[in-house]
Amino acid sequence: MSGPVPTVTALSDIYTTQALADQGVRWNNLLEKFQARYGSPAQFIARSPGRVNIIGEHIDYSLYSCLPMAIAPDVIIAVSTDVAPSDEGTYKIKIANVDEQRFPAREFDIPHSEVEIDATKHEWTNYLKSGLRGALELLRKKHGPDFKPKSMQMLMDGTVPAGGGLSSSAAFVSTSALAVMVANGETDVSKKDLTEVAIVSERAVGVNSGG
């Protein structure tokens, strides 16, 4: 698990030949909807796959050994950042989903001090907030407590079935954390750091995860 999270420039570096046509349509749809919603193109797309535990289901988050395997269904988030600095004391997160009927768009003004999450409410954006919180904790350890995050615009598409034991929430949290780190200048995100952030962060929404 050493080394940085890989960066790719072609879908053929991610998906099988058989999946390329459908994935090309999906990714283009994400980018087109992002442009239509926010009025400017996305700067990058972050991605995390779902996974299955071949051995060790439900003991991974207790730090026991397991044998996970990535699967084809995934979460992708298109991202852009504001050029203008965030308002004094806060920054803005705009998050939407391609399936807006099930997952309505949200907009948050978040204080630099803390990312608040109400785990008693079953709100889809709580998973984004948990990844955001974990990523910012890591960034502040690296850059100091006065680090100020950028405002971000985000559009998500996910194909990992929710509640199917395929780590859909972990994929969402991991993608969110990765997106926040890259948006704030981290070009070489450590796989180890991202995994640890995801494990700890998902607990903020009341879910135990092995990352």
TrEMBL record:
It is an enzyme of class 2 (transferase). The keyword ATP-binding applies. Residues 133-210 form the GHMP kinase N-terminal domain. PROSITE patterns: GALACTOKINASE, GHMP_KINASES_ATP. Its EC number is 2.7.1.6. SUPFAM superfamilies: Ribosomal protein S5 domain 2-like (SSF54211). It comes from the Eukaryota. Belongs to the GHMP kinase family. GalK subfamily. Coiled coil: none annotated. Residues 32-80 form the Galactokinase N-terminal domain. This is Galactokinase. GO terms for cellular component: cytosol. InterPro entries: Galactokinase, Galactokinase_CS, GalKase_N, GHMP_kinase_N_dom, GHMP_knse_ATP-bd_CS, Ribosomal_Su5_D2-typ_SF, Ribsml_uS5_D2-typ_fold_subgr.
